[in-house]
Amino acid sequence: MLFPLYWMVNVSLQSGGGAVATPWFPAAPSLDGYVRAFNDQGHNLVTSLVVSLGSVVLSLVIAAPAAYALAQFRIRWATWVLFGVLITQMIPGIVVANALYSAFSDLGLLNSIPGLILADSTAGVPFAIIVMRAFMGSIPPSIVEAARVDGAGQLRAFVSVVLPMSRNALITAGLFTFLFAWGDFLFALTLTTTEDVRPVTLGLYQYIGTYVSDWSPIMATAVLSSLPAIVLLLVAQRYVAAGVTGGAVK
Amino acid sequence: MSTRADAGTLASASGAAARQSRDGGATPPSRDGRSGRSSARTKARIAELAFLVPALVYLVLFFGYPVVKNVLMGFQEYTTKTFFTGEAPFVGLDNYSAVLSSSLFDKALLNTVLFTAGSILGQFVLGLAIAVFFRRSFPLNNVLRALLLLPWLVPLIASAAVWRWILDTDYGALNRFLGALPFVDGNPAWLTSTSLALIAVIGVNIWLGIPFNATILYGGLQEIPEELYEAGALDGATGWRAFRHITWPLLRPVVTVVLVLGVVYTLKVLDIILGLTNGGPANSTQTIATYSYFTSFKEFDFGQGAALGNVLVLLSLLFAVIYLRLNRKAVDE
Question: How far is CA B272 from CA A35, A169, B202, in A?
Fold first, then answer.
Protein backbone atom coordinates (compact mmCIF):
# COMPACT_ATOMS: atom_id res chain seq x y z
CA MET A 1 0.00 0.00 0.00
CA LEU A 2 2.70 2.47 0.91
CA PHE A 3 5.26 1.56 -1.74
CA PRO A 4 4.17 4.28 -4.19
CA LEU A 5 4.65 6.90 -1.49
CA TYR A 6 8.05 5.52 -0.62
CA TRP A 7 8.89 5.54 -4.31
CA MET A 8 7.80 9.15 -4.61
CA VAL A 9 10.17 10.21 -1.84
CA ASN A 10 12.96 7.94 -3.09
CA VAL A 11 12.87 9.26 -6.64
CA SER A 12 12.61 12.84 -5.44
CA LEU A 13 15.94 12.43 -3.64
CA GLN A 14 17.85 10.91 -6.55
CA SER A 15 20.32 13.18 -8.23
CA GLY A 16 19.80 14.03 -11.88
CA GLY A 17 19.11 10.51 -12.98
CA GLY A 18 17.59 10.88 -16.47
CA ALA A 19 15.09 8.33 -17.61
CA VAL A 20 17.00 5.32 -16.47
CA ALA A 21 16.37 2.85 -13.73
CA THR A 22 16.13 4.62 -10.39
CA PRO A 23 18.06 2.95 -7.58
CA TRP A 24 15.84 1.29 -4.99
CA PHE A 25 17.26 3.40 -2.18
CA PRO A 26 18.42 7.01 -2.07
CA ALA A 27 21.98 5.99 -1.24
CA ALA A 28 23.35 9.39 -2.17
CA PRO A 29 20.43 11.72 -1.51
CA SER A 30 20.43 14.97 -3.38
CA LEU A 31 18.12 17.93 -3.19
CA ASP A 32 18.55 18.92 -6.82
CA GLY A 33 15.05 17.77 -7.61
CA TYR A 34 13.64 20.02 -4.91
CA VAL A 35 15.64 22.99 -6.10
CA ARG A 36 14.25 22.58 -9.59
CA ALA A 37 10.78 21.93 -8.26
CA PHE A 38 10.88 25.17 -6.30
CA ASN A 39 12.17 27.09 -9.29
CA ASP A 40 9.55 25.70 -11.66
CA GLN A 41 6.61 25.29 -9.33
CA GLY A 42 7.21 27.71 -6.44
CA HIS A 43 4.80 30.22 -7.88
CA ASN A 44 2.18 27.52 -8.42
CA LEU A 45 2.58 26.31 -4.85
CA VAL A 46 1.87 29.82 -3.61
CA THR A 47 -1.18 30.01 -5.86
CA SER A 48 -2.43 26.71 -4.48
CA LEU A 49 -1.91 27.91 -0.94
CA VAL A 50 -3.78 31.18 -1.50
CA VAL A 51 -6.65 29.47 -3.29
CA SER A 52 -6.95 26.74 -0.66
CA LEU A 53 -6.92 29.13 2.27
CA GLY A 54 -9.43 31.34 0.48
CA SER A 55 -11.64 28.35 -0.09
CA VAL A 56 -11.47 27.41 3.59
CA VAL A 57 -12.53 30.89 4.67
CA LEU A 58 -15.31 31.13 2.11
CA SER A 59 -16.63 27.65 2.83
CA LEU A 60 -16.70 28.14 6.58
CA VAL A 61 -18.30 31.57 6.37
CA ILE A 62 -21.04 30.20 4.16
CA ALA A 63 -21.46 26.81 5.77
CA ALA A 64 -21.22 27.49 9.51
CA PRO A 65 -24.36 29.66 9.84
CA ALA A 66 -26.27 27.32 7.54
CA ALA A 67 -25.20 24.28 9.52
CA TYR A 68 -26.33 25.97 12.72
CA ALA A 69 -29.68 26.95 11.23
CA LEU A 70 -30.27 23.43 9.93
CA ALA A 71 -29.33 21.91 13.26
CA GLN A 72 -31.05 24.20 15.73
CA PHE A 73 -33.83 26.27 14.16
CA ARG A 74 -37.26 24.88 13.64
CA ILE A 75 -37.45 25.07 9.87
CA ARG A 76 -39.94 22.78 8.22
CA TRP A 77 -38.08 22.40 4.93
CA ALA A 78 -34.72 21.81 6.62
CA THR A 79 -34.75 18.16 5.55
CA TRP A 80 -35.15 19.23 1.95
CA VAL A 81 -32.21 21.56 2.13
CA LEU A 82 -30.15 18.77 3.61
CA PHE A 83 -31.30 16.39 0.92
CA GLY A 84 -30.29 18.96 -1.68
CA VAL A 85 -26.87 19.24 -0.08
CA LEU A 86 -26.44 15.47 -0.27
CA ILE A 87 -27.60 15.41 -3.89
CA THR A 88 -24.89 17.88 -4.85
CA GLN A 89 -22.41 15.07 -4.27
CA MET A 90 -23.83 13.28 -7.29
CA ILE A 91 -23.17 16.10 -9.70
CA PRO A 92 -19.95 15.45 -11.59
CA GLY A 93 -17.39 18.21 -11.47
CA ILE A 94 -17.19 18.23 -15.26
CA VAL A 95 -20.84 19.31 -15.42
CA VAL A 96 -20.15 22.18 -13.04
CA ALA A 97 -17.00 23.13 -14.93
CA ASN A 98 -18.79 23.03 -18.26
CA ALA A 99 -21.34 25.59 -17.12
CA LEU A 100 -18.95 27.70 -15.08
CA TYR A 101 -16.55 28.11 -17.97
CA SER A 102 -18.93 30.23 -19.99
CA ALA A 103 -20.27 32.05 -16.94
CA PHE A 104 -16.75 32.78 -15.70
CA SER A 105 -15.76 33.87 -19.16
CA ASP A 106 -18.55 36.46 -19.16
CA LEU A 107 -17.74 37.59 -15.63
CA GLY A 108 -13.99 37.79 -16.20
CA LEU A 109 -13.35 35.13 -13.57
CA LEU A 110 -11.31 32.78 -15.76
CA ASN A 111 -7.65 32.74 -14.75
CA SER A 112 -8.38 34.46 -11.49
CA ILE A 113 -7.81 33.54 -7.88
CA PRO A 114 -11.35 34.50 -6.79
CA GLY A 115 -12.77 32.38 -9.61
CA LEU A 116 -10.82 29.35 -8.48
CA ILE A 117 -11.74 29.92 -4.84
CA LEU A 118 -15.43 30.06 -5.74
CA ALA A 119 -15.25 26.93 -7.90
CA ASP A 120 -13.04 24.93 -5.52
CA SER A 121 -15.49 25.57 -2.71
CA THR A 122 -18.06 23.40 -4.47
CA ALA A 123 -16.46 20.47 -2.68
CA GLY A 124 -16.02 22.24 0.64
CA VAL A 125 -19.36 23.98 1.20
CA PRO A 126 -21.67 20.92 1.12
CA PHE A 127 -19.19 18.86 3.08
CA ALA A 128 -18.73 21.55 5.73
CA ILE A 129 -22.49 21.98 6.09
CA ILE A 130 -22.98 18.27 6.70
CA VAL A 131 -20.09 17.87 9.13
CA MET A 132 -20.88 20.97 11.16
CA ARG A 133 -24.59 20.34 11.22
CA ALA A 134 -24.04 16.92 12.73
CA PHE A 135 -21.90 18.52 15.39
CA MET A 136 -24.04 21.56 16.09
CA GLY A 137 -27.08 19.35 16.54
CA SER A 138 -25.46 18.11 19.72
CA ILE A 139 -25.09 21.56 21.28
CA PRO A 140 -27.77 21.80 23.96
CA PRO A 141 -30.25 24.54 23.00
CA SER A 142 -30.28 25.64 26.63
CA ILE A 143 -26.82 27.14 26.25
CA VAL A 144 -27.88 29.34 23.37
CA GLU A 145 -31.10 30.21 25.18
CA ALA A 146 -29.12 31.34 28.19
CA ALA A 147 -27.17 33.73 26.00
CA ARG A 148 -30.41 34.97 24.44
CA VAL A 149 -31.95 35.62 27.82
CA ASP A 150 -28.88 37.65 28.69
CA GLY A 151 -29.84 39.88 25.80
CA ALA A 152 -27.64 38.58 22.99
CA GLY A 153 -29.15 38.66 19.50
CA GLN A 154 -29.27 35.60 17.31
CA LEU A 155 -26.07 36.57 15.50
CA ARG A 156 -24.29 37.52 18.70
CA ALA A 157 -25.23 34.23 20.33
CA PHE A 158 -23.98 32.38 17.26
CA VAL A 159 -20.65 34.17 17.11
CA SER A 160 -19.83 34.25 20.80
CA VAL A 161 -21.38 30.99 22.00
CA VAL A 162 -21.96 28.53 19.17
CA LEU A 163 -18.80 29.11 17.15
CA PRO A 164 -16.34 28.78 20.04
CA MET A 165 -18.08 25.61 21.15
CA SER A 166 -17.90 24.22 17.63
CA ARG A 167 -14.19 24.81 17.30
CA ASN A 168 -13.38 21.18 16.62
CA ALA A 169 -16.08 20.86 13.99
CA LEU A 170 -14.84 24.05 12.35
CA ILE A 171 -11.30 22.73 12.31
CA THR A 172 -12.42 19.39 10.87
CA ALA A 173 -14.49 21.04 8.16
CA GLY A 174 -11.76 23.57 7.45
CA LEU A 175 -9.13 20.88 7.21
CA PHE A 176 -11.02 18.85 4.66
CA THR A 177 -12.03 21.92 2.72
CA PHE A 178 -8.36 22.78 2.48
CA LEU A 179 -7.55 19.30 1.23
CA PHE A 180 -10.27 19.41 -1.42
CA ALA A 181 -9.16 22.76 -2.75
CA TRP A 182 -5.49 21.87 -2.55
CA GLY A 183 -5.99 18.64 -4.46
CA ASP A 184 -8.39 20.12 -6.99
CA PHE A 185 -7.38 19.33 -10.53
CA LEU A 186 -10.53 19.64 -12.59
CA PHE A 187 -11.23 23.32 -11.99
CA ALA A 188 -7.56 24.18 -12.29
CA LEU A 189 -7.55 22.37 -15.62
CA THR A 190 -10.71 23.91 -17.04
CA LEU A 191 -10.87 27.38 -15.52
CA THR A 192 -7.25 28.46 -15.89
CA THR A 193 -5.39 28.73 -19.14
CA THR A 194 -2.48 31.03 -18.41
CA GLU A 195 0.60 30.65 -16.27
CA ASP A 196 -0.26 33.52 -13.95
CA VAL A 197 -2.83 31.59 -12.02
CA ARG A 198 -1.92 27.94 -11.98
CA PRO A 199 -2.24 25.66 -8.98
CA VAL A 200 0.47 23.10 -8.39
CA THR A 201 -1.80 20.19 -9.37
CA LEU A 202 -1.99 21.59 -12.88
CA GLY A 203 1.73 22.34 -12.82
CA LEU A 204 2.34 18.70 -12.02
CA TYR A 205 0.03 17.58 -14.82
CA GLN A 206 1.90 19.68 -17.30
CA TYR A 207 5.18 18.35 -15.97
CA ILE A 208 4.15 14.78 -16.75
CA GLY A 209 2.52 15.78 -20.02
CA THR A 210 5.79 16.86 -21.54
CA TYR A 211 8.46 14.38 -22.46
CA VAL A 212 9.95 13.24 -19.21
CA SER A 213 13.70 12.98 -19.02
CA ASP A 214 14.20 13.42 -15.31
CA TRP A 215 11.67 12.25 -12.77
CA SER A 216 13.27 13.68 -9.66
CA PRO A 217 11.87 17.22 -9.92
CA ILE A 218 8.48 15.75 -10.75
CA MET A 219 8.51 13.54 -7.71
CA ALA A 220 9.85 16.41 -5.62
CA THR A 221 6.83 18.45 -6.71
CA ALA A 222 4.57 15.54 -5.87
CA VAL A 223 6.12 15.35 -2.41
CA LEU A 224 5.74 19.10 -1.93
CA SER A 225 2.13 18.92 -3.05
CA SER A 226 1.45 16.17 -0.51
CA LEU A 227 3.15 17.79 2.45
CA PRO A 228 0.56 20.37 3.49
CA ALA A 229 -2.11 17.73 3.72
CA ILE A 230 -0.03 15.38 5.80
CA VAL A 231 1.31 18.11 8.09
CA LEU A 232 -2.17 19.55 8.59
CA LEU A 233 -3.61 16.21 9.50
CA LEU A 234 -0.87 15.53 12.01
CA VAL A 235 -1.28 18.96 13.60
CA ALA A 236 -5.06 18.99 13.71
CA GLN A 237 -5.68 15.38 14.63
CA ARG A 238 -6.33 16.07 18.29
CA TYR A 239 -8.98 18.70 17.56
CA VAL A 240 -10.80 16.38 15.26
CA ALA A 241 -11.02 13.67 17.84
CA ALA A 242 -11.87 15.58 20.98
CA GLY A 243 -15.43 16.08 22.13
CA VAL A 244 -16.22 19.64 22.99
CA THR A 245 -19.59 19.99 24.62
CA GLY A 246 -18.50 17.85 27.54
CA GLY A 247 -17.03 20.76 29.41
CA ALA A 248 -19.68 23.29 28.50
CA VAL A 249 -22.72 21.87 30.29
CA LYS A 250 -22.21 21.30 33.96
CA MET B 1 -13.75 15.00 -6.80
CA SER B 2 -12.35 11.96 -5.26
CA THR B 3 -13.76 9.65 -2.72
CA ARG B 4 -12.07 11.56 0.01
CA ALA B 5 -15.12 13.71 0.57
CA ASP B 6 -17.09 10.75 1.64
CA ALA B 7 -15.85 9.69 4.99
CA GLY B 8 -17.19 12.61 6.93
CA THR B 9 -20.20 13.09 4.74
CA LEU B 10 -21.12 9.55 5.25
CA ALA B 11 -20.42 9.36 8.94
CA SER B 12 -22.57 12.36 9.59
CA ALA B 13 -25.24 11.62 7.03
CA SER B 14 -26.46 8.70 9.07
CA GLY B 15 -26.52 10.80 12.19
CA ALA B 16 -28.11 13.64 10.29
CA ALA B 17 -31.10 11.56 9.35
CA ALA B 18 -31.78 10.71 12.95
CA ARG B 19 -31.55 14.23 14.19
CA GLN B 20 -34.24 16.60 13.12
CA SER B 21 -34.15 20.29 13.70
CA ARG B 22 -35.20 20.81 17.23
CA ASP B 23 -37.01 23.57 18.98
CA GLY B 24 -34.07 25.77 19.51
CA GLY B 25 -35.96 28.39 21.48
CA ALA B 26 -35.28 30.60 18.52
CA THR B 27 -38.07 33.08 19.06
CA PRO B 28 -37.37 35.27 22.01
CA PRO B 29 -40.08 35.82 24.57
CA SER B 30 -41.85 39.00 23.62
CA ARG B 31 -43.01 41.51 26.15
CA ASP B 32 -45.42 43.38 23.89
CA GLY B 33 -49.04 42.83 22.97
CA ARG B 34 -50.40 40.50 20.38
CA SER B 35 -49.42 42.45 17.23
CA GLY B 36 -46.03 43.16 18.75
CA ARG B 37 -45.59 39.48 19.35
CA SER B 38 -46.34 38.47 15.78
CA SER B 39 -44.10 41.13 14.29
CA ALA B 40 -41.34 40.17 16.68
CA ARG B 41 -41.85 36.59 15.62
CA THR B 42 -41.65 37.51 11.94
CA LYS B 43 -38.49 39.45 12.63
CA ALA B 44 -36.95 36.53 14.47
CA ARG B 45 -37.97 34.28 11.62
CA ILE B 46 -36.22 36.51 9.11
CA ALA B 47 -33.14 36.65 11.31
CA GLU B 48 -33.13 32.86 11.32
CA LEU B 49 -33.46 32.61 7.57
CA ALA B 50 -30.56 35.00 7.15
CA PHE B 51 -28.34 32.22 8.48
CA LEU B 52 -29.30 29.99 5.59
CA VAL B 53 -29.34 32.51 2.78
CA PRO B 54 -25.62 32.57 1.89
CA ALA B 55 -25.49 28.80 1.65
CA LEU B 56 -28.69 28.61 -0.40
CA VAL B 57 -27.40 31.28 -2.76
CA TYR B 58 -24.09 29.47 -3.12
CA LEU B 59 -25.73 26.10 -3.76
CA VAL B 60 -28.07 27.57 -6.35
CA LEU B 61 -25.26 29.39 -8.15
CA PHE B 62 -22.72 26.57 -8.13
CA PHE B 63 -24.93 23.50 -8.39
CA GLY B 64 -28.41 24.58 -9.45
CA TYR B 65 -27.24 26.89 -12.20
CA PRO B 66 -24.71 24.45 -13.70
CA VAL B 67 -27.25 21.64 -13.81
CA VAL B 68 -29.92 23.78 -15.49
CA LYS B 69 -27.34 25.35 -17.77
CA ASN B 70 -26.04 21.91 -18.81
CA VAL B 71 -29.51 20.69 -19.61
CA LEU B 72 -30.00 23.74 -21.82
CA MET B 73 -26.54 23.52 -23.40
CA GLY B 74 -27.27 19.92 -24.27
CA PHE B 75 -29.88 21.25 -26.71
CA GLN B 76 -27.76 24.09 -28.03
CA GLU B 77 -25.05 24.54 -30.57
CA TYR B 78 -22.59 25.95 -28.10
CA THR B 79 -19.09 26.31 -29.50
CA THR B 80 -16.18 28.75 -29.61
CA LYS B 81 -18.31 30.86 -31.93
CA THR B 82 -20.74 31.37 -29.09
CA PHE B 83 -18.07 33.21 -27.13
CA PHE B 84 -17.69 35.74 -29.93
CA THR B 85 -21.24 36.12 -31.18
CA GLY B 86 -23.06 35.26 -27.99
CA GLU B 87 -25.38 33.10 -30.06
CA ALA B 88 -26.15 29.53 -29.16
CA PRO B 89 -29.00 28.36 -31.40
CA PHE B 90 -31.19 25.55 -30.15
CA VAL B 91 -30.70 22.42 -32.20
CA GLY B 92 -33.05 19.95 -30.56
CA LEU B 93 -31.54 16.55 -30.03
CA ASP B 94 -28.66 17.03 -32.46
CA ASN B 95 -26.00 16.97 -29.76
CA TYR B 96 -27.35 13.79 -28.26
CA SER B 97 -27.67 12.01 -31.58
CA ALA B 98 -24.17 13.14 -32.59
CA VAL B 99 -22.69 12.00 -29.31
CA LEU B 100 -24.60 8.74 -28.97
CA SER B 101 -23.93 7.66 -32.53
CA SER B 102 -20.21 8.36 -32.41
CA SER B 103 -18.10 5.23 -32.32
CA LEU B 104 -16.29 6.59 -29.31
CA PHE B 105 -19.43 6.67 -27.19
CA ASP B 106 -19.87 2.90 -27.09
CA LYS B 107 -16.26 2.48 -26.16
CA ALA B 108 -16.43 5.17 -23.49
CA LEU B 109 -19.60 3.69 -22.04
CA LEU B 110 -18.09 0.23 -21.90
CA ASN B 111 -14.90 1.62 -20.36
CA THR B 112 -16.95 3.54 -17.79
CA VAL B 113 -18.79 0.39 -16.80
CA LEU B 114 -15.61 -1.70 -16.63
CA PHE B 115 -13.70 1.01 -14.81
CA THR B 116 -16.46 1.53 -12.26
CA ALA B 117 -17.28 -2.13 -11.68
CA GLY B 118 -13.62 -3.18 -11.51
CA SER B 119 -12.64 -0.33 -9.20
CA ILE B 120 -15.55 -0.85 -6.84
CA LEU B 121 -15.12 -4.60 -6.66
CA GLY B 122 -11.39 -4.35 -5.96
CA GLN B 123 -11.63 -1.47 -3.51
CA PHE B 124 -14.46 -3.03 -1.61
CA VAL B 125 -13.07 -6.54 -1.29
CA LEU B 126 -9.58 -5.38 -0.35
CA GLY B 127 -10.92 -2.60 1.87
CA LEU B 128 -13.15 -5.05 3.70
CA ALA B 129 -10.30 -7.53 4.12
CA ILE B 130 -8.13 -4.82 5.62
CA ALA B 131 -10.94 -3.60 7.86
CA VAL B 132 -11.53 -7.12 9.17
CA PHE B 133 -7.79 -7.56 9.64
CA PHE B 134 -7.54 -4.40 11.75
CA ARG B 135 -10.39 -5.55 13.96
CA ARG B 136 -8.21 -7.72 16.07
CA SER B 137 -5.81 -5.92 18.31
CA PHE B 138 -2.11 -6.26 17.71
CA PRO B 139 0.85 -4.03 18.39
CA LEU B 140 1.07 -0.96 16.15
CA ASN B 141 -2.54 -1.38 15.04
CA ASN B 142 -3.26 2.34 15.38
CA VAL B 143 -0.06 3.46 13.74
CA LEU B 144 -0.57 1.17 10.77
CA ARG B 145 -4.16 2.30 10.40
CA ALA B 146 -3.07 5.93 10.33
CA LEU B 147 -0.36 5.15 7.77
CA LEU B 148 -2.92 3.42 5.62
CA LEU B 149 -4.70 6.74 5.29
CA LEU B 150 -1.71 8.45 3.72
CA PRO B 151 -2.48 7.57 0.10
CA TRP B 152 -5.80 9.26 0.67
CA LEU B 153 -4.23 12.59 1.54
CA VAL B 154 -1.93 12.85 -1.44
CA PRO B 155 -3.43 14.91 -4.27
CA LEU B 156 -4.78 12.51 -6.88
CA ILE B 157 -2.70 13.99 -9.62
CA ALA B 158 0.45 13.46 -7.52
CA SER B 159 -0.49 9.80 -7.09
CA ALA B 160 -1.07 9.55 -10.81
CA ALA B 161 2.39 10.99 -11.45
CA VAL B 162 4.06 8.47 -9.16
CA TRP B 163 2.20 5.54 -10.69
CA ARG B 164 3.10 6.70 -14.12
CA TRP B 165 6.75 6.31 -13.25
CA ILE B 166 6.18 3.00 -11.43
CA LEU B 167 4.35 1.59 -14.43
CA ASP B 168 6.84 2.85 -16.99
CA THR B 169 7.54 0.08 -19.48
CA ASP B 170 11.31 0.24 -19.64
CA TYR B 171 12.43 1.65 -16.32
CA GLY B 172 9.37 1.47 -14.09
CA ALA B 173 9.69 -0.15 -10.69
CA LEU B 174 6.98 -2.70 -11.42
CA ASN B 175 8.56 -4.10 -14.54
CA ARG B 176 11.98 -4.14 -12.92
CA PHE B 177 10.48 -6.14 -10.11
CA LEU B 178 8.68 -8.47 -12.51
CA GLY B 179 11.82 -8.81 -14.59
CA ALA B 180 13.66 -10.10 -11.56
CA LEU B 181 11.19 -12.94 -11.20
CA PRO B 182 12.18 -16.11 -13.00
CA PHE B 183 8.85 -16.99 -14.59
CA VAL B 184 8.01 -13.67 -16.19
CA ASP B 185 9.25 -12.65 -19.57
CA GLY B 186 8.60 -9.58 -21.59
CA ASN B 187 8.03 -6.03 -20.46
CA PRO B 188 4.31 -5.40 -20.16
CA ALA B 189 3.54 -1.94 -21.53
CA TRP B 190 1.12 -1.12 -18.75
CA LEU B 191 0.08 2.34 -19.83
CA THR B 192 0.90 2.31 -23.50
CA SER B 193 -0.73 -0.84 -24.81
CA THR B 194 -4.41 -0.79 -25.63
CA SER B 195 -5.03 -4.12 -23.95
CA LEU B 196 -3.39 -3.29 -20.62
CA ALA B 197 -3.99 0.43 -20.07
CA LEU B 198 -7.53 0.10 -18.74
CA ILE B 199 -6.48 -2.68 -16.38
CA ALA B 200 -3.59 -0.57 -15.10
CA VAL B 201 -5.82 2.45 -14.57
CA ILE B 202 -8.35 0.35 -12.70
CA GLY B 203 -5.54 -1.08 -10.56
CA VAL B 204 -4.33 2.37 -9.59
CA ASN B 205 -7.86 3.50 -8.82
CA ILE B 206 -8.35 0.46 -6.60
CA TRP B 207 -5.20 1.40 -4.72
CA LEU B 208 -6.60 4.90 -4.25
CA GLY B 209 -9.97 3.68 -3.04
CA ILE B 210 -8.80 1.17 -0.45
CA PRO B 211 -8.21 3.67 2.39
CA PHE B 212 -11.72 5.07 2.05
CA ASN B 213 -13.38 1.67 1.96
CA ALA B 214 -11.25 0.28 4.76
CA THR B 215 -11.84 3.30 7.00
CA ILE B 216 -15.61 3.38 6.63
CA LEU B 217 -16.00 -0.38 6.87
CA TYR B 218 -13.72 -0.47 9.90
CA GLY B 219 -15.99 2.11 11.53
CA GLY B 220 -18.97 -0.08 10.74
CA LEU B 221 -17.30 -3.14 12.18
CA GLN B 222 -16.56 -1.30 15.42
CA GLU B 223 -20.32 -0.79 15.88
CA ILE B 224 -21.03 -4.51 15.99
CA PRO B 225 -21.20 -5.61 19.63
CA GLU B 226 -18.61 -8.14 20.68
CA GLU B 227 -21.26 -10.14 22.59
CA LEU B 228 -22.83 -11.24 19.33
CA TYR B 229 -19.63 -12.97 18.36
CA GLU B 230 -19.39 -14.56 21.77
CA ALA B 231 -22.95 -15.83 21.53
CA GLY B 232 -22.29 -16.97 17.96
CA ALA B 233 -19.20 -18.84 19.03
CA LEU B 234 -21.27 -20.81 21.54
CA ASP B 235 -23.51 -21.87 18.68
CA GLY B 236 -20.51 -22.89 16.67
CA ALA B 237 -20.35 -19.82 14.43
CA THR B 238 -16.72 -18.91 14.09
CA GLY B 239 -14.50 -17.75 11.29
CA TRP B 240 -16.27 -17.69 7.97
CA ARG B 241 -19.65 -18.64 9.46
CA ALA B 242 -19.45 -15.80 11.95
CA PHE B 243 -18.65 -13.45 9.12
CA ARG B 244 -21.58 -14.66 7.03
CA HIS B 245 -24.20 -14.73 9.74
CA ILE B 246 -23.15 -11.91 12.05
CA THR B 247 -20.74 -9.48 10.41
CA TRP B 248 -22.22 -9.28 6.94
CA PRO B 249 -25.90 -8.75 7.86
CA LEU B 250 -25.06 -6.14 10.48
CA LEU B 251 -22.60 -4.37 8.23
CA ARG B 252 -25.12 -4.12 5.45
CA PRO B 253 -26.25 -0.51 5.90
CA VAL B 254 -22.65 0.68 5.88
CA VAL B 255 -21.92 -1.48 2.86
CA THR B 256 -24.80 0.13 1.00
CA VAL B 257 -23.54 3.63 1.62
CA VAL B 258 -19.97 2.72 0.74
CA LEU B 259 -21.04 1.14 -2.54
CA VAL B 260 -23.45 3.86 -3.59
CA LEU B 261 -20.98 6.64 -2.84
CA GLY B 262 -18.19 4.61 -4.40
CA VAL B 263 -20.04 4.22 -7.68
CA VAL B 264 -21.18 7.82 -7.78
CA TYR B 265 -17.62 9.02 -7.24
CA THR B 266 -15.97 6.51 -9.55
CA LEU B 267 -18.28 7.38 -12.43
CA LYS B 268 -16.91 10.91 -12.47
CA VAL B 269 -13.21 10.18 -11.97
CA LEU B 270 -11.10 12.33 -14.22
CA ASP B 271 -7.81 13.14 -12.50
CA ILE B 272 -6.46 9.61 -12.46
CA ILE B 273 -7.25 8.80 -16.06
CA LEU B 274 -5.95 12.09 -17.41
CA GLY B 275 -2.85 11.84 -15.24
CA LEU B 276 -2.02 8.27 -16.19
CA THR B 277 -3.00 7.91 -19.81
CA ASN B 278 -4.88 10.98 -20.97
CA GLY B 279 -7.60 8.67 -22.19
CA GLY B 280 -5.20 6.85 -24.49
CA PRO B 281 -3.71 4.88 -26.04
CA ALA B 282 -6.20 4.97 -28.90
CA ASN B 283 -9.02 5.90 -26.50
CA SER B 284 -8.66 2.63 -24.64
CA THR B 285 -9.07 4.40 -21.28
CA GLN B 286 -11.61 7.00 -22.39
CA THR B 287 -14.67 7.14 -20.13
CA ILE B 288 -17.82 9.23 -20.38
CA ALA B 289 -16.28 11.73 -17.96
CA THR B 290 -13.04 12.16 -19.90
CA TYR B 291 -14.94 12.13 -23.18
CA SER B 292 -17.08 14.97 -21.88
CA TYR B 293 -13.97 16.87 -20.83
CA PHE B 294 -12.28 16.46 -24.20
CA THR B 295 -15.40 17.40 -26.11
CA SER B 296 -15.92 20.58 -24.13
CA PHE B 297 -12.41 21.74 -23.43
CA LYS B 298 -10.34 20.36 -26.29
CA GLU B 299 -12.81 20.49 -29.14
CA PHE B 300 -14.69 23.39 -27.59
CA ASP B 301 -18.04 21.86 -28.35
CA PHE B 302 -19.72 22.70 -25.09
CA GLY B 303 -23.12 21.55 -26.31
CA GLN B 304 -21.96 18.01 -26.94
CA GLY B 305 -19.83 18.09 -23.82
CA ALA B 306 -22.92 19.04 -21.83
CA ALA B 307 -24.90 16.23 -23.46
CA LEU B 308 -22.24 13.77 -22.30
CA GLY B 309 -22.19 15.31 -18.84
CA ASN B 310 -25.96 14.88 -18.64
CA VAL B 311 -25.63 11.22 -19.61
CA LEU B 312 -23.18 10.89 -16.74
CA VAL B 313 -25.57 12.51 -14.26
CA LEU B 314 -28.37 10.23 -15.43
CA LEU B 315 -26.14 7.18 -15.01
CA SER B 316 -25.32 8.02 -11.42
CA LEU B 317 -28.90 8.93 -10.53
CA LEU B 318 -30.14 5.75 -12.13
CA PHE B 319 -27.66 3.66 -10.24
CA ALA B 320 -28.36 5.33 -6.91
CA VAL B 321 -32.12 4.90 -7.30
CA ILE B 322 -31.93 1.26 -8.40
CA TYR B 323 -29.48 0.34 -5.70
CA LEU B 324 -31.40 2.07 -2.93
CA ARG B 325 -34.62 0.43 -4.14
CA LEU B 326 -33.16 -3.06 -4.19
CA ASN B 327 -31.57 -2.55 -0.89
CA ARG B 328 -34.67 -1.20 0.77
CA LYS B 329 -36.54 -4.29 -0.32
CA ALA B 330 -33.84 -6.54 1.03
CA VAL B 331 -33.89 -4.69 4.33
CA ASP B 332 -37.69 -4.76 4.57
CA GLU B 333 -37.94 -8.48 4.10
Answer: 27, 30, 9
